[in-house]
Specification:
The complex is a heterodimer of chains A (about 375) and B (about 250).
Chain A: H1 2-15, H2 25-33, H3 38-41, H4 45-70, H5 78-96, H6 100-122, H7 127-147, H8 149-152, E1 158-159, H9 178-201, H10 203-213, H11 215-220, H12 225-251, E2 253-254, H13 264-277, H14 284-305, H15 313-330, H16 334-357, H17 363-367
Antiparallel strand pairs in A: 1-2
Chain B: E1 3-14, E2 17-28, E3 32-36, H1 43-50, E4 58-63, E5 66-67, H2 73-78, E6 81-83, H3 96-103, H4 119-126, H5 141-154, E7 159-163, H6 171-186, E8 190-194, H7 198-204, E9 207-212, E10 215-220, H8 222-226, H9 229-245
Parallel strand pairs in B: 3-8, 3-9, 6-7, 7-8
Antiparallel strand pairs in B: 1-2, 1-4, 4-5, 9-10
The chains are: A mainly alpha (about 375), B alpha/beta (about 250).
Chain lengths: ~375, ~250
């Protein structure tokens, strides 16, 4: 964890050489470690449940980030892959009694396979055609989930009547051991973050970004664009599938209804998270997922004080939508993009101030290459 | 002279308009070959057909004896035929060094390996080392042009196709670019270059091909081509047309 957060800061440092290392490395490490204390800090089980939801969303959003943020492909089938993971886990748990430790890779792999299967025809096209085709596949899978009753139990969905099995001596039963379940989900949220970080640092990640930035140029340099899009989509599907297991455990069921991963509502929600968090930043999806889950909690009581009175969840969406419009207009690179800009400006101002005071270290010295 | 690239009877029509009309070209190993012609003569289309970005209607392209006419752009690039673009020539939201890393292809087997030891070595060669941590979108136009050239070099080419590399450069920048292209040739990389700037191409190239409405109308050393009656009529004709219009 510490090593990873240090490298996060290291990446930021290389991009924005700061006047003082402590101004970013320490706060970032604290911020990233903060969720570890959530069970102690959060006053109610309800808020801990929300933290679990945020951790699950974060895994899904980080997966979407690989194909949408890095590779630049607008996939509208991503949450469907989340659902594929949840259904896979449900079927294996209900019919074959698979344990938690086996469900996680199985769900990840099944969603990755589904992603590649969708990607093979869909990546024959690009841009909006690609988005529409992925949307069509999402609708097909939703229809299958509703109508293949023998397998999926139709619109009623699959109920999980057993709690998550323990891994070793650690219990994850979600009523008596919610803390443990939270930590398990959080561990995978951290892993997903480490995953997008490692991908970004690798040759594979650079290739994804080359495709996003200029597809023709990438091809002219010998990059197999089609193959790398498929790899990005497969990886993003794996993340979504793993998150599907936690979704299933958290809800104790999976169904293809209007508030399930199969709904267009959720798909749009995740794209918004990345746009609000920052689609060109590694931490963008994380920030977006946390905002999406906790912002309504902050906004609702505030609105309650105004003449508007109590707002339902649906009306909170109106505020969420307005936030998106404002983000696109005033902070097109999202919260993370804004923070980087502000931080860069702050570092530059600090540097100037020190130079005026005389005897300041040169700006590159602190970064150390 | 060994022909590394052989183009035979290459033709391309766009909605009935013949952009290329049976073009034959041989590119010799180790030379700098020029490709000139008035606007719309099919120069870029020819490059697009060779590098797989456009499927020719007829004709064949042979690279070292292998038929590459139906291959995809990335396959052709991996065989060592790499082109540059007139516009959108870099990856904008990445640093200069990341740009080169994205394009980098390591050593190939045998004696035809990557000419540069590392990405930093290549950035030094291009004179871009001082800009390596800047975003590609933030660097001056001349530097972006050099970076575009650098991306193609990072992809480990044996034949480099340059599409109007001197366009938009001033006299001094043009001279620097010509020097850079000569150095690339000295590395053992064959160069084929499209250019409008006649003094630039006359001084740089050993051989020039002239294209006019999709047909090759002349080929030879710069002095020969400059005195070719067909070439004079095409270029002077264009000039006279312009003069009488103003």
């Amino acid at each position: 964890m510490v090593a990873v957060s240090r490298s996060f800061a290291g990446t930021l440092l290389r991009q924005y050489p700061p006047a003082d290392i402590l101004t970013i490395r320490l706060p970032l490490a604290i911020l990233l470690a903060l969720p570890l204390l959530a069970p102690m800090l959060l006053p109610s089980t309800r808020l801990l449940s929300l933290a679990i939801t945020a951790a699950i969303f974060l895994i899904v959003a980080n997966g979407l980030h690989i194909v949408f943020g890095y590779t630049g492909q607008l996939s509208l089938a991503h949450t469907t892959l989340w659902g594929v993971g949840a259904y896979t886990a449900a079927l294996l748990a209900i019919h074959y009694g698979w344990p938690t430790a086996a469900l996680i890779p199985a769900a990840g792999i099944s969603a990755a396979i589904a992603a590649v299967a969708i990607g093979i025809p869909a990546f024959r096209t690009a841009g909006f055609s690609f988005a529409i085709i992925t949307f069509a596949f999402a609708e097909i899978l939703r229809t299958v989930a509703i109508n293949w009753r023998d397998l999926t139990n139709g619109g009623a969905g699959l109920m999980l009547r057993t709690p998550p099995t323990s891994i070793g001596p650690i219990e994850f039963e979600t009523i008596r051991h919610l803390d443990n379940f939270y930590y398990l989900t959080l561990a995978f949220a951290y892993l997903s973050l480490a995953g997008v970080f490692l991908i970004r640092q690798s040759r594979l990640g650079r290739t994804f970004i080359a495709i996003r930035e200029n597809e023709s140029l990438a091809r002219s340099l010998g990059i197999n664009v089609y193959l790398h899009k498929l790899i990005a989509f497969g990886l993003s599907g794996f993340f979504a599938g793993v998150a599907g297991v936690f979704l299933l455990y958290n809800n104790q069921k999976i169904e293809p209804g209007p508030l399930s991963p199969f709904s267009a509502f959720f798909t749009i929600q995740f794209l918004l998270m990345i746009l609000i968090g920052g689609r060109f930043s590694m931490l963008g999806p994380t920030i977006g997922a946390v905002i999406a889950v906790f912002a309504p909690e902050v906004i609702r009581p505030l609105i309650g004080l105004t003449p508007l009175g109590d707002l339902s969840t649906a009306r909170i969406q109106i505020i969420f939508g307005s936030t998106l419009v404002l983000t696109v207009l005033f902070a097109p690179n999202g919260v993370a993009g804004q923070a980087k800009e502000r931080y860069g400006a702050l570092a530059a101002a600090l540097q100037k101030f020190r130079e005026r005071q005389g005897g300041a270290a040169p700006p590159g010295a602190a970064a150390g290459g | 002279m060994v022909a590394v690239l052989t183009i035979e009877g290459l033709a391309k029509s766009f909605a009935g308009v013949r952009a290329l009309d049976g073009v034959d070209v041989e590119v010799h190993e180790g030379e700098i070959l020029g490709l000139v012609g008035p606007n719309g003569s099919g120069k870029t289309t020819l490059f697009n057909c060779v590098t797989g970005f456009v499927r020719p209607t007829a004709g064949t392209v042979l690279w070292k004896g292998r038929n590459i006419t139906q291959l995809a752009p990335d396959q052709i690039a991996r065989l060592g035929v790499v082109r540059t673009f007139q516009q959108k020539m870099v990856f904008p939201r990445a640093t200069v060094r990341e740009n080169v890393e994205m394009a980098w292809r390591g050593k190939r087997g045998g004696d035809t390996g990557q000419q540069f030891k590392s990405c930093d070595d290549l950035l030094d060669f291009l004179g871009l080392a001082h800009l390596k941590d800047r975003l590609a979108t933030d660097i001056p136009f001349g530097s972006a042009r050099n970076l575009g050239l650098g991306l193609a070099l990072a992809a480990n080419p044996r034949l480099l196709l340059l599409d109007e590399p001197a366009g938009g450069l001033n006299q001094d920048e043009g001279q620097e670019l010509a020097d850079l292209i000569s150095k690339i040739k000295e590395l053992g990389i064959t160069v084929w270059v499209i250019e409008h700037d006649m003094p630039f191409i006359m001084s740089l190239c050993e051989r020039i091909i002239v294209l006019h409405v999709g047909k090759r109308i002349a080929e030879g050393r710069p002095a020969e081509v400059a005195n070719d009656p067909n070439v004079i009529s095409v270029f002077l004709g264009e000039k006279f047309a312009k003069d009488s219009a103003t």
